[in-house]
Amino acid sequence: MKKYTNINDIKNVTEIIKEALELKKNPFQYEELGKHKTLVMLFFNSSLRTRLSTEKAAKNLGMEVMVLNVNDAWNLEYEDGTVMSLDTAEHIKEACQVLSQYADIIAVRAFPDLKNKEKDESEFMLNSFLKHATVPVLSMESATAHPLQALADAITIEELKNKKKPKVVLSWAPHPKALPQAVPNSFVTMMQKLDINFSITHPKGYNLNPEITKNTRINHNQEEALKDADFVYVKNWSSYEKYGKILSEDTNWMMTKEKLGHAKFMHCLPVRRNFVVEDAVLDSNQSVVIQEARNRTYSAQVVLKKILENL
Ligand code: AN0
Ligand code: CP
Fold first, then answer.
1. pTM for the predicted model, two decimal places
2. Which domain range does residue 115 map to?
3. CB-ligand 1 contact for 179 (6 Å cutoff)
4. Over the stretch 20-30, which tens digit does the pLDDT of each residue have?
5. 120, 126, 209, 222: which has the fewest Cβ within 10 Å?
């Protein structure tokens, strides 16, 4: 694997899930692979799981890890030809070339600002790293995708499914702050690649990018959509059409024990209790969010392994 910034960088989803589960059984079997190799992780935003699970994954493979909270470094310029007389002190061109001398793999977390759709969709930050870094790039959530999360979600479904073709529903939830579409985008793309019964439920106005949802079934009636579900993946996202806006804080869309039925509850975390999902769900044994977070280690580890093998 040359990079991992998108689900489509995976050649064979079924195989990579299998390989991740093998690593989970025996995490240290490739501890020589990453010897004398360094992962540099750059964070433009907060993180708990991604930061620690990716570091753990790299260390399981014998790698060295260096973490930089980019807000502690120089303010980066991304435009070409700018007269840098204002706030930006360093151009991404130099920064990437310098980082590539210290790192064998560069991992980046950079959320969108949700103000300018075209700018966010251009993935200018991630693409600048892809363009100017001379080592492989790993996305730890970009403006439009969170591929490590979606792989961990697929691993979790594979572990827990008790029928060949489970019913999986992505259910929108209310949230007090405007959140990106990155997590649902990657989840949808991943689910489309699995042999499952998949659908989405959200209030009107919350359609994701149609180039991502394609012909996936969308039902605006949550109760109807959740009927007989085996897995319910709950996530808020702000409007894609009225870009970055909160159109409805309709608390009726919060996930409850009653709505969940017999399904397993999934969420990428962090989650706001009693706004996105009620306590009774998170505190029940139907919630698999902790297992999902654990699988973040093995999704990162299988991807790092594939990148290391290709260095
Ligand atoms: C982020 C999001 O929704 O993209 C990160 C989730 C992994 N969530 C929040 O900012 C709460
Ligand atoms: N799920 C996830 O990516 O969590 P963090 O934002 O804590 O990394």
1. 0.98
2. 7-145+296-309
3. yes
4. 999 999 999 99
5. 209
